[in-house]
Write a structure and sequence with these properties.
HIT family, subunit A, five-stranded antiparallel beta sheet
């Protein structure tokens, strides 16, 4: 189901042009206009699903089925040193288009224009705290 106000739904419908990389009945992949690095590609479900919290299992299965093929094509085409698969969910996490999407960002070295910053906080959590957190998550998954 499309959302008329969604730019990605408009791209899927052909109302807005895109540089298509791949398409099947469930998934559409195209070059991101920002090109954070050369070959930066977005993979989106054709169904409008806002974020990972609304993503149906069937949609996720179809979407992630396409990821290795698109990633391999990027690898064969550009021979990057690596590849980031990135997804932002909700505005505080950096989501700016509210149609679920994955970024495939080829990496060409430390000066390629993409910076991911990870801070290590292992000293903030004891083994017992980690076990309790894991149990809380498992309990939430089991209802």
């Amino acid at each position: 189901m499309a959302d008329e106000s969604c730019i990605f739904c408009s791209i899927i419908n052909g109302d807005i042009p895109s540089a298509k990389v791949f398409e099947n009945e469930h998934v559409y992949a195209f070059l991101d206009i920002s090109q954070v690095t050369k070959g930066h590609t977005l993979i989106i479900p054709k169904n409008h699903e806002k974020d990972v919290f609304e993503l149906r299992e069937e949609t996720a299965a179809e979407l992630f089925k396409a990821v290795p093929a698109v990633a391999s094509a990027l690898n064969d085409t550009f021979q990057p040193e690596g590849l980031n698969v990135l997804n932002n969910n909700k505005e505080p996490a950096g989501q700016s288009v509210f149609h679920y999407h994955l970024h495939l960002i080829p990496r060409y070295g430390s000066e390629d224009g993409f910076k991911a910053v990870w801070e290590e906080h292992s000293s903030d959590y004891s083994t017992e705290t980690l076990q309790q957190m894991a149990q809380n998550i498992a309990d939430a998954m089991n209802g």
